[in-house]
Amino acid sequence: MASERPVTLTAEGKADLERELHHLRTVKLPDVTARIQELSMDGDVSDNSEYEDTKEELIQLEARIREIENLLRRVRVIAPGKSDGVVKLGSRVTIVDETGQAETWILVSPEEANTLQGKISTESPVGAALLDKRVGDSVVVRAPGGETSFTIEKVE
């Protein structure tokens, strides 16, 4: 059974999920359904791998739709607040590693995390280490690849 705990998202994260759900329902689902109908009209589908692959795609698509609907039912949007300098959910944090290389991350819930968009989970090693820290604080992140030290340069 799916978890019924509240899901905390940024307003942007909620909007992203709503856009994805709309796209899945209005574009992807009709497309996959139409392909299944076309393939089933081609005759015997018992040995048709394309038909089986498309059915599997439909199953995964419907599962993703249900997952997003479930998340949106439980969503709690965090209000953007004025930064008090403490790293918390929704903070944009710039950190500097031992070599002087800076990275900027937005701390989000696991459901919204996407490293390609610069969003890391508060449950990730880096995110968890940064929570409740302030500008100037140093943190040691223990990850499978080893330990890394960061200094917090900016919190927005």
Q: How is the topology of this model organized?
A:
Elements: E1 7-9, H1 11-41, H2 49-73, E2 75-77, E3 92-97, E4 102-108, E5 119-121, H3 125-130, E6 138-143, E7 146-155
Parallel strand pairs: 1-2, 4-5
Antiparallel strand pairs: 3-4, 3-7, 6-7
Helix pairs in contact: 1-2
Uncertain stretches of 5 or more adjacent residues: none
How would you describe the shape? elongated
Report the C-alpha radius of gyration, rounded: 21 Å
Count, helices: 3
| Strand segment tally | 7
> Fraction of residues in helices?
25-40%
Please characterize this protein's 3D structure.
This protein has 156 residues and is of the alpha/beta class. The chain folds into two domains: 7-77, Helix Hairpins, CATH 1.10.287.180; 92-155, Transcription elongation factor, GreA/GreB, C-terminal domain (Chitinase A, domain 3). The protein is 40% helix and 24% strand. The strands form two sheets. A five-stranded mixed beta sheet has the order 5-4-3-7-6. The radius of gyration is 21 Å and the shape is elongated. The model has no long low-confidence stretch (mean pLDDT 92).
